[in-house]
């Protein structure tokens, strides 16, 4: 790469609400700049995990270098840095944005601004990025680009006069987006002789190369052989390779200030090179690390248990493998009376948790049982000791507890005004406190609430989605801890308490939750030859009870010559299903039971 | 040289009953002739395969074997007599349906060597018969039954089903009274099974059936067992009852995992440690036989573990239970060697009882037999 071209670098991200077309636009930009022909291009090249593509969300971010010959006749290097689009990954989004000078803000011409649009815009503004609004999906009959433009100007306060009206889907006006990037995103500062200062905005583990760090160089130069220091972890490594991604990884002899690319340095685990850390040269360090580094703290915990006890080591190995690539995942072994040996795992949020569960299932083919997610509670004991509890089983006896605190989040819910009543009722029901309501336009508002996180992780998303037919969007951030009247809700199956079902809930919710769970368990636990009582209890007090009726009949009335194979296979299948059940006392409990407890009831 | 059972499938019916998932067709009368020709062809292929073996029982099932011209039945049995070893042939059964029989047909059957009749009636309540797609009436059943007796048959089974839509315990009682007055040598009384892809299954899925509750259904079964026992029947298999020495020998072969051959559409066979089954459509069945090969659709080899499991599971269907001596003779090891733990568990739960010679299901065990049988899979 010619050194003189440096001023022709543009580093940018695309920000949007989920489903507003971020990945599709990325595809078009890549296609338009000729990096890949459309035939080579698998749809949405930036989302490279199956799971991501299926869910239409981007979980892991990456960067690609595009070469664009602009109308001014010059050739530009456009570094597109992808960002995850979900509230669980806010920190990662902020680090990606920190690597850029500008951001394209996509707004769906049919839907307008949504909760995550705003959240992402604020993150971009925090990083002083130049924001280029783009109105997408103008090919749809219900598109209302002028209204949406006005909305963006009103709500976000950015000028939309020149905002390109595009259709990422059919490729309309993609060129104008590229021109906007070239003309409006500032070129990076380029002090190539200063001490090295580079930001890690993503890192992934590769079996052959170790950890691949995706970096933005702010000052100085980085090259193979250089001894580098990671300023947050204090670890030092020798650089093996540097380069850029142009669809594949291309090794270069150096990366300089202004560049976006990757580096490898025989790093064994992503925990040693975490997102947000600053890289400098060991022998010639920069004075100050880049601002904004945060250690990721899991907000949600749950138990992950092998469905079959002998898989314990496989689950451990799988979690270790996932962790190499996911600095936010933590786990430690734990034991449950009902489920045996397993792991307590910490996640950034619910989506992160579901992703890990699905990956264990799909990529490692493991059959796992997950317990109800929990947040971290602070427990003040009578003796002045303060405990942090994320597993209900570890809660000390009520008599030893002075008081407890639970985490509260600041939630913003954007919704058409039609659903305000419904949402207020829902938030009320979830123990929320109303802060205020802002009108975005005549028919749309943002509701600000403070909600206990433990209500949010239970079924808030599902409830919100179903009650507003998907029209409301939701975003939250942790606010802090407040004192709360919490109790441990225990479930008893056939008079035996099952620790894996225990939950910490607000005292006022205990009865309702106990009743709902017992009712669901009656439906998922198969009938036995004896009646099985299902009870919910707080302390020694039973607050809800259901009974699974005894099975009276399980017999095949007819079985002759042609039925023998079929009969055997039927029994084999039945046995296979039985194998997947957990024996709790003399009751067989299917895995779904552990899941059902978490599900939203209409 | 071993003794085997021979099953012959006649897949024709005047119309299909709503609960039936057997391979059988209505409106195919025009290919009966061709089918029988091919069936005889299939038998002739078996002639070589089992020339060392003796046929102990023959069962002509369906479908409705009595629906087709009796000359075909005559022809088949004649072929068997001429080509197989029938020195020890003890039992030849044919299934018939009320309304498809006259005295001439019955006499032809008798002369052809048939010595056991299995008649499907299912219930004597005309409304219930209609509900399940039966095309005969109570009266036609009585008429057919008289014909059979007149023709000299002394071993008659009648098939009933309980737990039918709208059926009450009193309706079952009515059927039992009829049995008491007729005294057939054998009664099969099945709990209704809603097989997938049958009209009754679909009706039930759409909540269009008024079926007895699970506890009512069991009450019916318990009543049937009690009443038939009082009439002198021996309850010998989950759904089967017989007067002294009138148990169905052919079916007992199935329940004791003895070899059998099935000929005709979709018939199953168990021979030389292999279970296999025939084509289930006329086209493929005819094509194979045209080529002179057996019309086999698929099969599986049974290993020792499967045989042990099947023997135990099927023996448990018999009221006398698993014959421990026979188990040991057959598998060279005590049954406890394989199943000690689970036998103890089910003894404790009251689902089975054990004496010196047998392990058998209790009355509760009969209601929940799958729960026990599942544990005998190896």
Automatic annotation (TrEMBL), chain A:
<dbReference type="GO" id="GO:0005886">
    <property type="term" value="C:plasma membrane"/>
</dbReference>
<keyword id="KW-0472">Membrane</keyword>
<keyword id="KW-0378">Hydrolase</keyword>
<dbReference type="GO" id="GO:0005525">
    <property type="term" value="F:GTP binding"/>
</dbReference>
<dbReference type="InterPro" id="IPR035654">
    <property type="entry name" value="LepA_IV"/>
</dbReference>
<dbReference type="InterPro" id="IPR000795">
    <property type="entry name" value="T_Tr_GTP-bd_dom"/>
</dbReference>
<dbReference type="Pfam" id="PF03144">
    <property type="entry name" value="GTP_EFTU_D2"/>
</dbReference>
<dbReference type="GO" id="GO:0003924">
    <property type="term" value="F:GTPase activity"/>
</dbReference>
<protein>
    <recommendedName>
        <fullName>Elongation factor 4</fullName>
        <ecNumber>3.6.5.n1</ecNumber>
    </recommendedName>
</protein>
<feature type="binding site">
    <location>
        <begin position="136"/>
        <end position="139"/>
    </location>
    <ligand>
        <name>GTP</name>
    </ligand>
</feature>
<dbReference type="InterPro" id="IPR013842">
    <property type="entry name" value="LepA_CTD"/>
</dbReference>
<feature type="binding site">
    <location>
        <begin position="19"/>
        <end position="24"/>
    </location>
    <ligand>
        <name>GTP</name>
    </ligand>
</feature>
<dbReference type="Pfam" id="PF00679">
    <property type="entry name" value="EFG_C"/>
</dbReference>
<dbReference type="GO" id="GO:0045727">
    <property type="term" value="P:positive regulation of translation"/>
</dbReference>
<dbReference type="GO" id="GO:0003746">
    <property type="term" value="F:translation elongation factor activity"/>
</dbReference>
<dbReference type="InterPro" id="IPR009000">
    <property type="entry name" value="Transl_B-barrel_sf"/>
</dbReference>
<dbReference type="Pfam" id="PF06421">
    <property type="entry name" value="LepA_C"/>
</dbReference>
<feature type="domain" description="Tr-type G">
    <location>
        <begin position="7"/>
        <end position="189"/>
    </location>
</feature>
<keyword id="KW-0342">GTP-binding</keyword>
<dbReference type="InterPro" id="IPR005225">
    <property type="entry name" value="Small_GTP-bd"/>
</dbReference>
<keyword id="KW-0648">Protein biosynthesis</keyword>
<dbReference type="InterPro" id="IPR000640">
    <property type="entry name" value="EFG_V-like"/>
</dbReference>
UniProtKB/TrEMBL annotation, chain B:
<dbReference type="GO" id="GO:0005737">
    <property type="term" value="C:cytoplasm"/>
</dbReference>
<dbReference type="InterPro" id="IPR013785">
    <property type="entry name" value="Aldolase_TIM"/>
</dbReference>
<dbReference type="InterPro" id="IPR004559">
    <property type="entry name" value="HemW-like"/>
</dbReference>
<dbReference type="InterPro" id="IPR034505">
    <property type="entry name" value="Coproporphyrinogen-III_oxidase"/>
</dbReference>
<dbReference type="GO" id="GO:0051539">
    <property type="term" value="F:4 iron, 4 sulfur cluster binding"/>
</dbReference>
<comment type="similarity">
    <text>Belongs to the anaerobic coproporphyrinogen-III oxidase family. HemW subfamily.</text>
</comment>
<dbReference type="GO" id="GO:0006779">
    <property type="term" value="P:porphyrin-containing compound biosynthetic process"/>
</dbReference>
<dbReference type="InterPro" id="IPR010723">
    <property type="entry name" value="HemN_C"/>
</dbReference>
<dbReference type="Pfam" id="PF06969">
    <property type="entry name" value="HemN_C"/>
</dbReference>
<comment type="function">
    <text>Probably acts as a heme chaperone, transferring heme to an unknown acceptor. Binds one molecule of heme per monomer, possibly covalently. Binds 1 [4Fe-4S] cluster. The cluster is coordinated with 3 cysteines and an exchangeable S-adenosyl-L-methionine.</text>
</comment>
<keyword id="KW-0004">4Fe-4S</keyword>
<keyword id="KW-0408">Iron</keyword>
<dbReference type="Pfam" id="PF04055">
    <property type="entry name" value="Radical_SAM"/>
</dbReference>
<dbReference type="InterPro" id="IPR007197">
    <property type="entry name" value="rSAM"/>
</dbReference>
<keyword id="KW-0560">Oxidoreductase</keyword>
<keyword id="KW-0949">S-adenosyl-L-methionine</keyword>
<keyword id="KW-0479">Metal-binding</keyword>
<dbReference type="GO" id="GO:0046872">
    <property type="term" value="F:metal ion binding"/>
</dbReference>
<dbReference type="InterPro" id="IPR058240">
    <property type="entry name" value="rSAM_sf"/>
</dbReference>
<dbReference type="GO" id="GO:0004109">
    <property type="term" value="F:coproporphyrinogen oxidase activity"/>
</dbReference>
<feature type="domain" description="Radical SAM core">
    <location>
        <begin position="1"/>
        <end position="234"/>
    </location>
</feature>
<dbReference type="InterPro" id="IPR006638">
    <property type="entry name" value="Elp3/MiaA/NifB-like_rSAM"/>
</dbReference>
């Amino acid at each position: 790469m010619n050194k003189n071209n440096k001023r022709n670098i543009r580093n940018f991200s695309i920000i949007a609400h989920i489903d507003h077309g971020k990945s599709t636009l990325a595809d078009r930009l890549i296609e338009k700049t000729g990096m890949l022909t459309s035939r080579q291009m698998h749809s949405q090249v930036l989302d490279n995990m199956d799971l991501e593509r299926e869910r239409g969300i981007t979980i892991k971010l990456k960067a690609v270098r595009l070469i664009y010959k602009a109308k001014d006749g010059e050739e530009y290097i456009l570094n597109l840095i992808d960002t995850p689009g979900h509230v669980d990954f806010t920190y990662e989004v902020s680090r990606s944005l920190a690597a850029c000078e500008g951001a394209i803000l996509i707004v769906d011409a049919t839907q307008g601004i949504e909760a995550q649009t705003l959240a992402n815009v604020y993150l971009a503004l925090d990083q002083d990025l130049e924001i280029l609004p783009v109105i997408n999906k103008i090919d749809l009959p219900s598109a209302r680009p002028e209204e949406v433009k006005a909305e963006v100007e009103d709500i976000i306060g950015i000028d939309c006069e020149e905002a390109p009206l595009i259709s990422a889907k059919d490729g309309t006006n993609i060129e104008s987006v590229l021109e906007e990037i070239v003309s409006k995103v500032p070129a990076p500062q380029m002090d190539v002789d200063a001490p090295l200062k580079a930001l890690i905005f993503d890192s992934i583990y590769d079996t052959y190369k170790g950890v691949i760090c995706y970096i933005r160089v702010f000052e100085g130069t980085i090259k193979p052989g250089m001894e580098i220091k990671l300023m947050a972890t204090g670890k030092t490594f020798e650089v093996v390779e540097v380069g850029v991604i142009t669809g594949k990884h291309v090794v270069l002899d150096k990366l300089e200030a202004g560049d976006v690319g990757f580096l490898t340095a025989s790093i064994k685990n992503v925990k040693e090179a975490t997102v947000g850390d600053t890289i400098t040269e060991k022998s010639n360090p920069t004075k100050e690390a880049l601002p904004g580094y945060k250690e990721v703290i899991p907000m949600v915990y749950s138990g992950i248990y092998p469905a079959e006890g002998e898989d314990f080591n496989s689950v451990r190995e799988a979690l270790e493998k996932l962790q190499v690539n996911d600095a936010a995942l933590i786990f430690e072994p734990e034991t449950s009376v009902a489920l045996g040996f397993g792991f307590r795992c910490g996640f950034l949020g619910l989506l992160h948790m579901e992703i890990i569960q699905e990956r264990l299932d799909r990529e490692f083919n493991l059959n796992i049982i997950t317990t109800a997610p929990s947040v971290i509670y602070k427990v003040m004991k009578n003796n002045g000791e303060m405990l942090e509890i994320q597993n209900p089983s570890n809660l000390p006896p009520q008599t030893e507890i002075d008081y407890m605190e639970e985490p509260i989040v600041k939630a913003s819910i954007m919704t058409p005004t039609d659903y305000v009543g419904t949402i207020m009722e829902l938030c009320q029901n979830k123990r929320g406190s109303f802060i205020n309501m802002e009108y975005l336009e005549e028919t749309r508002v943002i509701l600000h609430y403070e909600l206990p996180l433990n209500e949010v992780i239970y079924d808030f998303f599902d409830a919100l989605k179903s009650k507003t037919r998907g029209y409301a969007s939701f975003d939250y951030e942790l606010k802090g801890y407040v004192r709360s009247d919490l109790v441990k809700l225990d479930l008893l199956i056939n008079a035996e308490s099952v620790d894996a079902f225990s939950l910490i809930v607000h005292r006022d919710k205990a009865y309702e939750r106990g009743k709902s769970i017992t009712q669901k368990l009656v439906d998922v636990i198969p009938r036995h030859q004896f009646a099985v009582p299902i009870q919910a209890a707080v302390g020694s007090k039973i607050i809800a009870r259901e009974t699974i009726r005894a099975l009276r009949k399980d017999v095949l009335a007819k079985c002759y010559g042609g039925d023998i194979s079929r009969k055997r296979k039927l029994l084999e299948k039945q046995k296979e299903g039985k194998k997947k059940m957990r024996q709790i006392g003399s009751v067989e409990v299917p895995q779904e039971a552990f899941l059902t407890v978490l599900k939203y009831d209409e | 040289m071993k003794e085997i059972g021979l099953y012959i499938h006649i897949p024709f019916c005047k119309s299909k009953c709503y609960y039936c998932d057997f391979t059988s067709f209505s409106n195919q009368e025009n290919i009966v002739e061709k089918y029988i020709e091919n069936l005889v062809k299939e038998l002739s292929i078996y002639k070589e395969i089992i020339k060392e073996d003796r046929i102990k029982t023959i069962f002509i099932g369906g479908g409705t074997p009595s629906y087709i011209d009796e000359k075909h039945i005559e022809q088949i049995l004649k072929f068997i007599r001429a080509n197989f070893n029938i020195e020890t042939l003890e039992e030849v059964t044919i299934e018939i349906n009320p309304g498809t029989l006259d005295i001439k047909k019955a006499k032809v059957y008798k002369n052809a060597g048939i010595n056991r009749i299995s008649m499907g009636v299912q219930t004597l309540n005309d409304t219930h018969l209609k509900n399940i797609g039966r095309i005969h009436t109570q009266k036609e059943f009585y008429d057919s039954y008289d014909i059979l007796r007149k023709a000299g048959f002394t071993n008659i089974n009648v098939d009933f089903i309980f737990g039918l839509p709208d059926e009450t315990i009193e309706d079952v009682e009515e059927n039992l009274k009829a049995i008491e007055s007729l005294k057939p040598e054998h009664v099969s009384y099945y709990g209704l099974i809603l097989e997938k892809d049958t009209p009754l299954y679909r009706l039930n899925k759409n909540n269009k059936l008024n079926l007895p509750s699970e506890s009512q259904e069991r009450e019916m079964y318990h009543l049937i067992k009690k009443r038939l026992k009082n009439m002198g029947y021996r309850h010998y298999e989950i759904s089967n009852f017989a007067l002294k020495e009138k148990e169905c020998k052919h079916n007992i072969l199935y329940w004791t995992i003895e070899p059998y051959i099935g000929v005709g559409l979709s018939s199953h066979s168990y021979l030389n440690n292999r279970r296999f089954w025939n084509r289930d459509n006329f086209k493929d069945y005819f094509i194979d036989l045209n080529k002179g090969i057996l019309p086999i659709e698929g099969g599986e080899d049974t290993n020792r573990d499967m045989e042990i499991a099947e023997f135990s599971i099927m023996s448990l269907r018999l009221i006398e239970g698993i014959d421990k001596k026979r188990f040991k003779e057959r598998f060279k090891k005590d049954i406890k060697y394989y199943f000690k733990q689970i036998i103890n568990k089910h003894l404790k739960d009251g689902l089975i009882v054990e004496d010196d010679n047998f392990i058998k299901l209790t009355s509760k065990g009969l209601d929940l037999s799958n729960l026990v049988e599942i544990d005998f899979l190896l």
